[in-house]
Fold this sequence. Notes:
By secondary structure, the protein is an alpha+beta fold. 20% of the residues lie in helices and 29% in strands. It has 20 helices and 50 strands. The strands form 15 sheets. Strands 24-11-12-10-9-25-26-8-31-5-46 form an eleven-stranded mixed beta sheet, with helices on both faces. Strands 34, 35, 36, 37, 38, 39 and 40 form a seven-stranded mixed beta sheet that branches. The protein has a five-stranded antiparallel beta sheet with strand order 15-14-16-22-21. A hairpin with a 4-residue loop joins strand 32 and strand 33 (622-624). The chain is elongated and about 120 Å long. 41% of the residues are buried.
Amino acid sequence: MATRKTASKTAPSPATPAPPAQPVDALVHAGDGRLFIPSREEAGQEAEALAGRPTAKTVPLNPVTTRGQDPELYWMHKYGPGDDERALRIDIRSLYRHEHVEPERLIARLYALKAQAATQNDLFTAELHGNPLAIDELEKPASYYKRHDAWRNRLIQGDSLLVMTSLLEREGMAGQVQCIYIDPPYGIKYGSNWQMRQNDRNVKDGADDHLSGEPEVIKAFRDTWELGIHSYLSYLRDRLLVARELLSASGSCFVQISDENVHLVRSLMDEVFGSENFVSQIAFVKTSGQTPKMLASVFDHLIWYSTDKGACKYRQMFEEKPFVESLTERYVCVETPGGKLIDLSVAQKAGAAPMPEGRGLRLRDLTSQSGSENSRFIYSFQGSELRPTGGRGWSTNAAGLDRLKELGRLHLVGTSLRWKNYHDDFPFRAISNLWTDTGASGFGESRVYVVQTQTEVIKRCILMTTDPGDLVLDPTCGSGTTAHVAEQWGRRWITSDTSRIALNIAKTRLMTATYPWYLLEDNVGGDIRHGFQYKASEQVTLGVLAGDEVAEKRRMFDQALVDKKKLRVAGPFTVETLQGFEPLPPEALATAHARPADTQRFSDRVFEHLKHAGIKNGLKNETAVFNRVDAINEQMGDGGALHAEGWYPTPAGERKAYFHIGPQFGTVSKKAVNDAILACRRRADADWLVILGFGFESDVDNRSVTVKLGSFEVTKVRMHDDLMQDGLIKKDKKAASFVTIGEPDIATVPAKLPDGNPGVAVEIRGLDLYDPITDEVKPRNVADIAYWMVDEHYDGSNFVATQVFFCGGDHDEFDKWKKGLSALALADAKAKVEKTLKLELDDEAFERVYGHRSHPIAARKGQRVAVRVISQFGEESTKVLAL
């Protein structure tokens, strides 16, 4: 089924008025499913369901075993540092649901529906996200990776290789993807793809101030590009090997690349897919060309391979053909209403002279080089006896020529017989592998990401190789263009990225997008897999005219028919995370502090900075400087939960603090914090527990812990990325290496519900935000909040976004929604039907979208409301309120 049904499950009787149509809707894919996976809060509970399954996957590094016809591309460390590895070992990790987003539910807050019929309009049913909330808690552990839910599209944070391997091995998705689009970094300069803020895509390559503040991205960079282009090829080879297994037998893989490495990448893809499965190399015009000392580069490339070229799914795409294609082309004419043929001059072809009124045509040759003796007969026309010259023959038989004469399609040019091919016979041409209309002038759009691909490029790839309902995968999400295009054209999608900035840009783009409502081919059953209704054009050819055949109708797959009475938003999707976000294997993280060779330098840097720079408290504008910091040896059964102890001066005398140091390339987990709290409680001799980390799981918060001898404060402290980069950047900053990360200052205030009854609203009054560019905490600065979301009925396991707000940004995130709703309301007011739907915009709700106070919430005792705040730097903080 393609759409959510607003009516009840039983059909209304003839006497019962049907419920009004829903003006805002979304496409869902009820005919497809996906395996049930745990949420982040349920991490670890899947162990029972995964017991006995492999924890690593082995892939041959060179899958092509017969190399008779293809040369092999060789690069440094292709087969490992010792040149003796023949297989790639990949850890199999779990994916976790982090958020549930349904734009259709979000926009419902911004308008009201009233109908003349008294029928209740039920906007939403219990099918949300396959309803994981309905599963009994005791049944969940055994249900993971076994129970099937309704399909929901997927936005995943994590390394692409680990994400694809998880899809392949954990969820059994081999052969389920129809199209893979990969847009890897074009080069190996460390600043090329990094964007620091969601609202600032100004990135200067090689500038420290523009270096990503995301530890997992820096870790990926240093590991990936250590050997330059050699590392680049290994990086891409590994991902293509796994991607190939995800592709269906008729699937396609596109890699977008520049001139710099296109030759190497094509050779690499020969090895992975086999040269016999090469389909095409497409050149497309970039949005802007660079200006080097020599020739400017204005084209990028798409390298297209299939799983099996003979079985490759392909839908021919067309573009409008201009009447005049070349100034030097001959026999380009206009037939006047009186039947006179005017051969256009060069000036008329160039538009420098007025074009005659009439029907455009070309006089095409009626002979071919492959003519047989039977095709060289004499044909009489307008008193002339005509016969093909040389070894040529007529392109059709005598009966065909007679039909052309009856249709008025023949024309004599000297002693040459030609046929009239009117431009409107088929004013289109098949798209080739040269796309010159993909620059900014042809398909300009506002860009939100430093390396954002134009939608037209990805759209053509998807429409050429997939049908509605097919699955598209992009392991290089960026700004989410592939997901955005796939959503528009009714394809299912999965996309992933390591960067928090990229994922939040993509999520915002999808949450606020509007799309045309395309008419379904199956307009009764609503099954999207039958496709859309498309514009079609009859292709009139010489064979059709001469053979008296029915012209073939060619569908324009990029021109679906639109129902302008409905507004479409993105369908429901889940935001997911790879296990713990960390790019290191689980066993490596578990022993991170037990490997002195690698971690001692890191620990020494941390201790040194603690003593010299101290911890900056952004909220109180004070700094705690430590007189002494000592490493802790294993004692009292702490299990390594506490790593150092320090003493700092206060007006009341010297005080003691314990430190937990998070992983160098990872995220501080809730479990690690709980273990540190237990260890600190057992020791009972400090009043401060400091949790140091580069990133924190969303449910790690600041707190006060009471013990028998008093209490101690637990504080999250953000470590500066200089401590982790170790030589990646050129400067060694000493100031503000540690800053506290405060929780959002959130409160509930009374608010009236739409029906007039009392309710509550959530209000954000401030947030301590760390700015890695200026290296400081900005307390209570809501301008740097990218957006915030509310889950009105948080169950402790599943964050379901029911409200979203964009404070601190431009008032344009929801403009498309408002314009679309206004157009629908205007059209509805003009409707001349007895029972019509009345749509009213809630202007107050639209104003709230850009502010710090939520929509009213109907509260009940014991209800929990979760509030998630995302900064411009991609960092997020979640707080749960009990009403």
